[in-house]
Design goal:
The complex is a heterodimer of chains A (236) and B (440). With 236 residues, chain A is mainly alpha-helical. Chain A folds into two domains: 72 residues, Muramoyl-pentapeptide Carboxypeptidase, domain 1 (Orthogonal Bundle), CATH 1.10.101.10; 115 residues, Arc Repressor Mutant, subunit A (Orthogonal Bundle). Chain A has eleven helices and three strands. Chain A has a three-stranded antiparallel sheet with strand order 1-3-2, with helices on one face. In chain A, strand 2 and strand 3 form a beta hairpin. In chain A, helix 6 packs across helix 10. Chain B folds into three domains: 159 residues, no CATH class; 149 residues, no CATH class; 69 residues, Roll (Nuclear Transport Factor 2, Chain: A). In chain B, strands 1, 2, 3, 4, 5, 6, 7, 8, 9, 10, 11, 12, 13 and 14 form a 14-stranded mixed sheet that branches. In chain B, strand 10 and strand 11 form a beta hairpin. In chain B, helix 1 runs antiparallel to helix 2, helix 1 runs antiparallel to helix 5 and helix 2 packs antiparallel against helix 3. The longest helix of chain B is centred in the N-terminal third of the chain and has 69 residues. The chains are: A mainly alpha (236), B alpha+beta (440). The interface between A and B is large, with 64 and 72 residues.
């Protein structure tokens, strides 16, 4: 009987493993598609908004898992269940009626219009770059990173669009490691907007690097003009 | 045979079968993943190859047009060919930025293409106005030679595609940089005749607004930041060079991060920001915010009859652009931008590089045209709403113009007409949106 027990355990473990592997594979989705779906579903599409919805649904007993600010099938299912019980259109979209029924207020994504000649998508991209490159830095440091991107757009040595500059090969580590796809916070958006409005703490710098992590030999040869937080800024 | 023995055999078979199942399933899954990865890699290779071919096409077209310019004798024909150069240079500059080359090594190539486009546009404007363009024409030969060299190197890079299993991505994996042309442009541009957005003239000019002002020390700069902006615990985090030397100061104001750039000459605040959160509903109206902005501007030391010229609200803050006005003329180059919290009217920032760089006494000859005749110089399609005199920045210089504001088909425009000869200098279009009014 002892053998039987061991075998049963082994079988159970094997099945468990298959289950976990299956789930892990099934859950595999690139981060981009998660945000892309969320953008269509929750007004403002920020993690903070999604968290608010999840928190409220959890309080009401519709949402059982962790409040993580990521729009997944469980969140959508909870929204639909809530809509069904409250006689709302069951579309899984948190529109103004669902928002009202939930008793919460979601903040709208604030850069809904063009600023200083740049489009909304440019502004979003710039804010994402600021958030990915400089969150945790002092506010000035965040404006400075956005200003460097804009200085490059204006410089003849770099591409002439925000997206051209940000996605340029080897230009920003946040593009190489995928952090550019994180949802920016309000501070990063404000910093991007200030830079577009003409604020430039770097006084025209085209480069910056973190002396603790920079690997490019070339960048060390530049004359540092100023240091804000962890970043050193250089003109050219 | 005992029952337990039978069960033992059945369980063993099941376990082996389950294990085989797991192995087969994992293999299939891994194979699928591998296929997807290979496919993504192949698509990426095509994107790079496409970019390389497109760069070569655009540069070849550009070089071809430049070659025609060398022998063309008619000004009208030159302008038309230069328009092709402009278009192809812009296309090449755009696509070269997408090549998987080390950006630090290829800033020269990007600069060359941008400046060729800029040069062509500048040439067209000059030729169109009837000016002497011989200084431009002397440059054609050098620019053409440089373009031919860029084309040769791009053709070499593109020529490797499709030979001996060459792959751009393999080169990148191996840490090799594909070589696509000159690291530095080999031509010198005469900045006197060429002052487009990508000219180097801007970097060379000094801030005439600060001429003759005494230099201040680091301690004095910190005192300016403390007294005028309330920056406590300020420290100098750098001294930036460029057109004007500035002390970069960081500290806190009212518990929030704050920074200021103070000019070494004259101790002016060139820019400052206070990173205070401005949550909550706005209470201040446009007029109140503008009034606050004027108060702050004066307190910060920007004097000279400032008047609000633009208002832009975003979130719970507003940026108000102020410009000096004297004798009915608005001086746009001397712009001061003040950011005010709409919640409590607090100062959130100031940007006055334009003011610090340009503000000085100017002596323009009186406008020869009358407002009524300036109005006649703009398109008859525009319904004119306002005409006033304004000095606007143009390249590295300034021009006295009539600013003719008008609408057409519900769109707002500002047309700038030279106040002496009536030529159209610039057109700006206004985008109206929920955040306020912006100039594009």
């Amino acid at each position: 009987m002892k053998k039987l027990k061991v075998l049963c355990l082994a079988l159970a473990l094997t099945l468990c493993f298959v289950g976990i592997a299956g789930e892990a594979v099934g859950r595999y989705e690139p981060g981009v598609s998660i945000t892309a779906v969320a953008a269509n579903i929750v007004k403002g599409d920020t993690a903070a908004n999604i968290k608010k919805v999840q928190q409220r649904l959890k309080e009401l007993g519709y949402y059982k898992i962790a409040v993580d600010g990521i729009w997944g099938p469980k969140t959508r299912a909870a929204v639909i269940a809530f809509q069904r019980d409250y006689g709302l259109t069951q579309d899984g979209i948190v529109g103004s009626r669902t928002e009202k029924a939930l008793g919460i207020t979601l903040s709208s994504s604030s850069s809904s219009g063009a600023t200083g000649g740049y489009s909304t998508s440019d502004m979003n991209l710039l804010a994402r770059c600021v958030y990915a490159e400089a969150r945790g830095e002092p506010y000035t440091g965040q404006v400075a990173v956005a200003a460097v991107v804009l200085n490059r757009v204006r410089s003849s040595k770099f591409p002439n669009t925000i997206s051209g500059v940000i996605y340029q090969n080897n230009a920003f580590t946040c593009v190489a490691d995928g952090q550019i796809n994180y949802t920016p916070n309000e501070t990063a958006r404000n910093a991007a907007r200030d830079a577009v409005n003409g604020w430039d703490p770097t006084n025209g710098c085209l480069y910056y690097y973190n002396p603790a992590t920079a690997t490019s030999k070339w960048i060390w040869s530049l004359k540092v003009e100023l240091t804000i937080g962890r970043h050193s800024f250089a003109r050219a | 045979m005992k029952v337990s023995h039978k069960i033992w055999i059945i369980m063993t078979v099941m376990l082996v079968a389950a294990l085989i199942g797991v192995v087969v399933w994992l293999s299939v899954w891994l194979y699928g993943e591998r296929m997807r990865a290979d496919n993504a890699r192949m698509q990426m290779e095509y994107v790079y190859e496409n970019a390389l071919h497109d760069s070569l096409d655009s540069v070849s077209e550009m070089e071809n047009s430049l070659a025609k310019l060398l022998v063309s004798g008619s000004r009208a024909e030159n302008m038309s060919i230069a328009a092709d150069v402009y278009k192809d240079a812009a296309a090449a500059a755009e696509v070269v930025g997408r090549l998987p080359v080390d950006m630090y090594e290829h800033t020269g190539l990007q600069k060359f293409l941008n400046q060729v486009g800029d040069f062509a546009a500048s040439y067209i404007r000059s030729a169109g106005s009837g000016a002497d363009v011989s200084a431009y024409e002397e440059q054609f030969d050098d620019i053409h030679s440089a373009a031919a060299e860029v084309r040769r190197q791009l053709a070499e890079a593109a020529g490797r595609i499709g030979t001996d299993g060459y792959s751009v991505i393999n080169d990148i994996d191996a840490g090799l940089n594909i070589s696509v042309g000159v690291g530095e442009a080999v031509i010198e541009y005469p900045s006197i005749i060429y002052d487009g957005p990508f000219s180097d003239a801007d970097n060379e000019s000094s801030w005439k607004g600060l001429d003759g002002l005494p230099e201040i020390s680091e301690e004095q700069a910190l005192a300016v930041a403390r007294d005028k902006l309330g920056i406590e615990g300020g420290k100098i985090v750098g001294i930036s060079t460029g057109a004007a030397v500035m002390y970069e100061i960081e500290g806190t104001a009212g518990g929030a991060d704050a920074y200021a750039s103070v000019t070494k000459c004259g101790g002016m605040i060139a820019s400052a920001a206070i990173g205070r959160e401005t949550e909550g509903k706005g209470r201040l109206g446009e007029d109140e915010a503008a009034e606050k902005a004027l108060e702050y501007a004066e307190a910060l030391g920007y004097c000279g009859c400032l008047t609000p010229v633009w208002y832009n609200e975003s979130g719970s803050a507003a940026v108000i652009n102020l410009a000096p006005e004297s004798d009915g003329i608005i001086y746009y180059p001397d712009l001061v931008k003040i950011k005010v919290s709409l919640t409590d009217g607090a100062l959130l920032g100031a940007e006055a590089c334009g003011y610090c760089a340009n503000h000085c006494e100017r002596a323009y000859p009186p406008a020869r045209m009358t407002p009524a005749s300036a109005e006649k110089c703009v398109s008859s399609r525009l319904t004119v709403t306002n005409v006033r005199l304004a000095v606007i920045p143009k390249g590295s210089s300034e021009r006295l113009c009539y600013e003719v504001a008008g609408t057409y088909k519900g769109l707002d425009y500002f047309v700038y007409v030279d106040a002496c000869d009536g030529t159209q200098v610039d057109i700006l279009r206004v985008i109206d949106d929920e955040q306020g009014k912006l100039v594009a």
